[in-house]
Write a structure and sequence with these properties.
heterodimer, A: alpha+beta, 16 helices, B: about 300 residues, alpha/beta, 7-stranded mixed sheet, globular
Chain lengths: ~525, ~300
């Protein structure tokens, strides 16, 4: 779920007709003081972070005047809240509270509809309050096609004996809240507390909202750069990885950085999974062997070879890895030679110097294992591939043996730079470009690249491979970036063909054990 | 129509001319699925592996007769429209393969399906296979593999993970345990036919004598299966495994889930509930074939049937 900051959620509530406290966001103590001056009177200064429990961690402070607001902001900005470093504070008018309540929305997986929850008691510790006072919590499923009717909101409030003017104000607030959630496709949301002030106003004093990751594309206005369940801002590597996911919809891609700033030799493994369930099982196997997961990248659902290549490059760009481990369910429906080729290209480009265990069972696993063996035999690292008849537990055990016996001190030679010459014959593919050094091709006896291409993209012209299809068709996907031509050229030809698959934002020098 | 299907079930493939649609049309046809039509707007008159292509599902119905099941290979953002189109053309069983279908779209599909008496599996599913008879979706990848990996027998398999569906089926087969029905319910938190629905379908299936269920942390599906056992609505012997034992529990962002669900959704909670309800809960995935095999032996049932 893509989480919104409190100030973002509140802006959406205000647009939807709910009342929110006056105030705005500050990125510095000075700015916080300025806002306090504008607001006049006492203020509250609140850390903007995707976590709950800010108040008890000191992330919410009251200030009676602008100097105090400045001081509060100075204390909060830069503060560490769980995994989150606070960069901004929300400075708001301080409310004179008469009563605190709660309204929330979740998606009910049993009834397959949104569910609205209201509690006449709210504020800090709402979960305990709800446990101790179940009679004060009411809820209703919401018909997705009808939406929330005012009468349904009134029914909820009647059950708690909330009557009169307050009933009217809360009815409007509940209906408006549901509409905001629906419009912005919130997967979960809550106003806690929903407050009644001493002067009779109903306001949203705090709000958490998380947007459905899969719907983020429909809401560019929300400015969500990575649609992910994060409890901290994305790392630079995660941002680079997300561009791969957003730019290539062939199969699934998911990258998460699980550890940072660990020393070399601390048994951190770059983990390349395939499918959620198989990945979880495989990570369990690694964890039970005492490994730590440095990062997690999932490529599944029939990904292109180029996508698997990018995944491997991103995984290996993290420094101080002790090993590379790839494993999914073990019996993949997709053709596994695509993944094998992607891994070989990545391992060759970084000149892999680590032990790697690749569990690549599934369709065409034998061919995939042969590609991996042949394509990595001359690398300083050791790559072992296994098929569907070898369990994840066994593979994790094999990785222990490899890591324990590995000499991490031996300095690996630097990776070669497979840059094509300036005057190479080139054309664009769906996510990159293909370059052929025709001068080298003239010395090539058999031009294996042409035969290797299953899509008939290349043909021979005067002994040199050239495009057999229109450049537009190739760019639109007739070339699937299966990488077969490049590997054929490297191993059977003259090493003249190179497919450039850019990964914007990837750290320049790959880490792998440095 | 129920979730159960065979080689007679009349199937349409929506998005048949796309990359996945073409590849899986071949899988389904070669395996024995009765694929009678494909739909891609603007491509009427073409054919894919001998399957005629129509512009709309209704046109396909008009030309080839009523369609019972649709397999959808359409980009996620367009799945809702495709599902509504199939439901409105009278299709009663949908398999929604794509990943990343927006959640509120799934809710709308669910409401519409319920109103029209249709059911769906997915989204984010590999699909289902009735071993030896027919496959809907992409499970197995190609027909030869599907024949090799899914042996025919008395055990129903249901899973929330696609890859693990195939893996457990293959490992069961290797241990001499054949399968009656294999259903990947889909990886998302809200799916059309979650585990409880599948258990009810398998309860009603005379060919299924026992069930292997692969669950996962999150949602209330497995707890509801336990409830079905306790209330006597699902009585067949059950072997269950729950993934995510060592998974880092996410930092929750909102309290609403905790208020509504209490302790449900956790690994410990699911395991305890299923054990209380009399399921054989297996902790180590690799032990599933042996435990299932043992169960069949106790029941006096042969593990495998030759197709």
């Amino acid at each position: 779920m893509a989480r919104l900051y409190e100030h973002q959620s509140k802006k959406l509530l205000a647009q939807g007709g709910l009342t929110i406290p006056r105030g705005r966001v500050a990125a510095s103590p000075e700015e916080a003081a300025e806002i306090a001056v504008e607001l006049g009177g006492p203020v509250v200064v609140k850390a903007q972070a995707w976590v709950t429990g800010r108040a008890s961690a000191g992330g919410v402070r009251f200030a009676d005047d602008p100097p105090a607001a400045r001081e509060a902001a100075a204390a909060i900005i830069g503060m560490q809240l769980k995994n989150f470093t606070v960069q901004e504070v929300l400075v708001e008018e301080r409310l004179d509270l008469a009563r605190e309540m709660y309204v929330g929305l979740i998606i009910d997986d049993t009834l397959k509809c949104p569910r609205l929850i209201f509690s006449s008691l709210g504020g800090t510790g709402i979960e305990e309050i709800a446990r101790e006072h179940p009679d004060q919590v009411v809820q209703t499923p919401v018909d997705i096609t009808q939406g929330l009717w005012e009468y349904q909101a009134r029914d909820l409030l009647c059950r708690l004996d909330i009557r009169g003017e307050l009933q009217g104000k809360l009815t409007k607030a509940l209906v408006a809240f549901y509409r905001v959630c629906r419009r912005h496709e919130a997967r979960s949301a809550e106003i806690n507390p929903l407050v009644l002030t001493a002067d009779g106003r109903v306001l949203a004093a705090d709000c958490h909202m998380a947007i459905d990751d899969y719907a983020v594309f429909r809401h560019p206005d929300l400015g969500i750069d990575i649609a992910r369940e994060f409890d901290r801002p994305a790392t630079p590597l995660e941002k680079a990885a997300y561009q791969v996911e957003a730019g290539d919809h062939r199969g699934t891609f998911y990258f998460l950085q699980m550890a940072e700033n660990y020393p070399a030799g601390s048994r951190h493994v770059g983990f390349h999974g395939a499918g959620g369930g198989g990945s979880m099982m495989s990570m369990d196997a690694l964890l039970r062997q005492g490994f730590h997961i440095a990062n997690f990248c999932d490529t599944s659902g029939n990904p292109s070879a180029s996508k698997v290549y990018r995944a491997a490059r991103i995984i290996l760009s993290q420094p101080n890895l002790d090993a590379y481990f790839a494993s999914g369910s073990g019996v993949a429906s997709q053709e596994q030679y695509h993944s094998a080729r992607g891994l070989v290209k990545a391992f060759r480009e970084v000149n892999l110097s680590l032990p790697a265990v690749i569990r690549i069972g599934g369709n065409s696993e034998r061919q995939a294992m042969e590609i991996l063996a042949a394509g990595t035999a001359d690398l300083p690292g050791r790559v072992e591939a296994f098929g569907r008849d070898t369990s994840a537990v066994h593979c994790a055990g094999r990785l222990v043996e490899l890591v324990d016996g590995w000499d991490y001190q031996a300095a690996p030679p630097p990776p070669p730079a497979p840059r094509p010459p300036e005057d190479a014959y080139s054309f664009d593919t769906i996510t990159g470009s293909l370059h052929i050094d025709h001068a080298a091709c003239l010395a090539c006896a058999n031009q294996p690249c042409v035969a290797a291409c299953p899509a008939g993209v290349l043909r021979l012209e005067d002994g040199r491979p050239v495009l057999a299809l229109s450049p537009a068709d190739v760019r639109r996907g007739r070339c699937t970036e299966c990488l077969a031509c490049e590997l054929a050229c490297q191993f059977e030809g003259r090493g003249a063909l190179f497919i450039e698959l850019p990964i914007p934002g990837l750290p320049a020098s790959p880490g792998q054990g440095e | 129509m129920s979730l159960l299907f065979d080689e007679k079930t009349k199937v349409v493939i929506q998005g048949i001319t796309g990359r996945e649609g073409q590849a899986r049309a071949l899988l389904m046809k070669e395996y024995g699925t009765n694929v009678v039509a494909g739909v891609t707007p603007g491509r009427a008159g073409q054919n894919v592996h001998g399957v005629p292509v129509f512009d709309t599902v209704q046109e396909a119905v008009d030309q080839v007769g009523p369609l019972e099941a649709s397999v959808i290979f359409i980009p996620a953002a367009l799945c809702k429209a495709a599902a509504f189109e199939a439901i409105d053309a009278g299709v009663k069983l949908l398999v929604i393969v794509p990943d990343r279908v927006p959640l509120y779209d799934v809710l709308e599909i669910a409401a519409h399906a319920q109103a029209k008496g249709a059911r769906f599996v997915g989204p984010n599913t590999l699909g289902m296979i009735t071993p030896g008879r027919a496959v809907l979706g992409m499970i197995g990848g190609r027909a030869a593999s599907a024949r090799d990996w899914f042996k025919v027998g008395p055990v129903g398999v249901a899973s929330r993970s696609g890859g693990m569906t195939t893996a457990v089926s293959y490992y069961l087969g290797r241990a001499g345990v054949g399968l009656s029905r294999v259903i990947h319910v889909g990886g998302d938190s809200v799916v059309g036919s979650p585990h409880p629905d599948v258990m009810l379908a398998l309860e009603a299936d005379p060919g299924t004598k026992a069930v292997v269920m692969l669950g996962e942390i999150g949602t209330t599906q497995e707890e509801r299966v336990a409830e079905l056992r306790e209330t006597g609505r699902f009585t067949k012997p059950l072997v269950a495994w729950i993934g995510g034992a060592a998974a880092k529990s996410g930092t929750r962002f909102s309290h609403a889930g905790a208020i509504v669900e209490g302790g449900r959704g956790s690994w410990d909670g699911k395991v305890a509930r299923l054990q209380e309800a009399g399921a054989r809960v297996v902790e180590n995935f690799d032990d599933i074939p042996q435990v299932t095999s043992q169960l069949l032996a106790e029941m006096g049932i042969k593990g495998q049937v030759n197709p």
